[in-house]
Each structure stands twice: as structure tokens, then as C-alpha cells.
Design a protein that fits this description.
Blueprint lengths: L5 H6 L1 H17 L6 H29 L6 H5 L1 H23 L12 H22 L3 H20 L7 H26 L1
């Protein structure tokens, strides 16, 4: 039996909202230098990541409320998030390349874990490149921190999430990671 509480499930929405807000800022901030293809790739990927997170948080909330165990809501998370980060990363790498840097997206055919890391890495590398170009060192640092905290989430995802303690640890790390992404985007915007 899973140990999900209502407060834990509600906290699970925080990193989803932070990611959504950061992605929205990225779309607005880079709109002038992005082609329609890059924009479509990034926005599609960001939507997949956001929807995957919303469904997983909703799964936990429904489970905690005793409404049932909607396995598909939990099961969709990993693959949708992996594909979403890949698309967002490719779109952002293309837009940064168009902005004038020499960032190139690599699209290897490997397991979903590799795809997620590559997509997330491409997204953060593109943001770091843009922060460097704009001389926003604090944003660059936040993007690096966000990337490594997201990698920690990857490690934690291999642990038993049926226990409440693991969920709280993971949510704390996820909030910090998405908060760093949001903070970096805020600095980059100004």
C-alpha cells in the first residue's frame, strides 16, 4: 500500500507549476529568435512534461483521498516526461543555435532514461549558453543546479516511492530543482 497523504500530493503540484511558469517565460523571452519549428518542438515538449507532472500529482491526490488507484495516471509519467524533455531540449537547442551560439542537439536512440537526460541536458545547456551570452552568471549557476537536482530525481526514481519519506525527499529536491529553473529564467528575463 502506498503512503500518499493529501498534503504530499498537493506539494507535488509545486514543481509542476514552477516548470510551467519557467517554460512560459522561455517561450516569451526567446520568441524573437526562434523559428516556428523550434517553438513548436519546445512548446510541445514543455506541454508533455507539464501534463505528465499534473497527471502524476493528480494520481497521488486521488489515491490519498481514497478515490482509487488510477494506474495509468502514474504509469504515463516516465515516458511522457522523457519524450517531453527531449522535444523541449531539441527545440531550445535549435533556438539557441539560431540566436548565434554553436549548440547542437544530439538525438541518439537509447533508453528513455538517456533520452530524458539528453533532453533535459540540452534544455539546460541551451539556457546556460544564453545566460553566458547575456552575461547573467547567476542564471547560469541556477540552470546548472537545476540540471543536477533533476539528475538526483532520476536516481531517486529508482527507489521505492510507496514510502512517504521517499516522496517527501523527492518533492523537496524537485521543488528546489524547478525553483532553480524558474529563478534562472526570471534572471534571464530581466
Amino acid at each position: 500500500m502506498k503512503q500518499f497523504s493529501v498534503p504530499m500530493a498537493l506539494v507535488d503540484y509545486i514543481p509542476v507549476v514552477l516548470f510551467f511558469l519557467a517554460a512560459r517565460m522561455i517561450v516569451k523571452d526567446l520568441n524573437a529568435c526562434r523559428t516556428k519549428t523550434s517553438s513548436l518542438l519546445f512548446q510541445t515538449g514543455a506541454c508533455l512534461v507539464t501534463i505528465a507532472g499534473l497527471l502524476k500529482a493528480t494520481y497521488k491526490l486521488l489515491y490519498a483521498l481514497g478515490a482509487g488507484d488510477f494506474v495509468w495516471m502514474n504509469g504515463q509519467f516516465f515516458s511522457n516526461q522523457a519524450i517531453g524533455f527531449l522535444l523541449a531540449g531539441i527545440g531550445l537547442m535549435r533556438s539557441v543555435k539560431e540566436y548565434g551560439t554553436k549548440a547542437y542537439a544530439l538525438i541518439p536512440t537509447m533508453a528513455l532514461v538517456g533520452i530524458m537526460v539528453i533532453g533535459l541536458g540540452a534544455m539546460d545547456a541551451a539556457l546556460c549558453s544564453l545566460a553566458s551570452k547575456r552575461k547573467k552568471t547567476s542564471a547560469l549557476i541556477l540552470f546548472v543546479v537545476s540540471f543536477f537536482l533533476c539528475l538526483c530525481m532520476g536516481y531517486l526514481s529508482s527507489r521505492n516511492f510507496d514510502r512517504a519519506a521517499m516522496n517527501w525527499i523527492a518533492q523537496g529536491i524537485n521543488i528546489l530543482g524547478q525553483g532553480a529553473l524558474y529563478g534562472g529564467c526570471t534572471i534571464l528575463k530581466n
